[in-house]
Amino acid sequence: IVGIFLLNDDPNVAPCYACLVSSPLGQCSMGGHGLSCAMTYAFLAGFNSIFLLFKLFSDGPFAFVSFACQVSGAFLGMKLNAMVSASMGDMQMP
Questions:
Q1: What 8-state DSSP symbol labels residue 69?
Q2: For residue 17, with 0-12 CB atoms within 10 Å meaning exposed, 13-18 middle and 19 or more buried, which class applies?
Q3: What is the DSSP letter of 33?
């Protein structure tokens, strides 16, 4: 769900975003959407990867692929947040 709020400007995701905003979950998006959700996305992906680490050896190859995707999502989300924060800092300087 955080990914939908993160990519709300994407034309392919826009119908899903419109559906979520018009639902009761829309109240959760009052503070931010778009790239401001990058850190939330990274945190949740990292949290998911921690729980997948516990199931890594018992659930087979799906758990390994899911773990790899969650770790890469957390890493890329943190890098995206750093890039957005750096560009916002550059914009505020006169």
A1: H
A2: buried
A3: -
- What's the residue count for the chain? 94
Measured in whole angstroms, how far is the alpha carbon of residue 83 from the centre of its chain?
15
Q: Do 84 and 38 meet the contact criterion of CB atoms below 8 Å apart?
A: yes
Q: How far apart are CA 1 and CA 13, in angstroms?
A: 11
pLDDT (tens digit per residue) in 26-81: 776 666 666 777 788 888 889 989 988 888 888 888 888 999 999 998 999 899 88
- 71-to-30, 41, 65 alpha-carbon distances in Å: 28, 12, 10
Are the CB atoms for 46 and 69 separated by under 8 Å? no
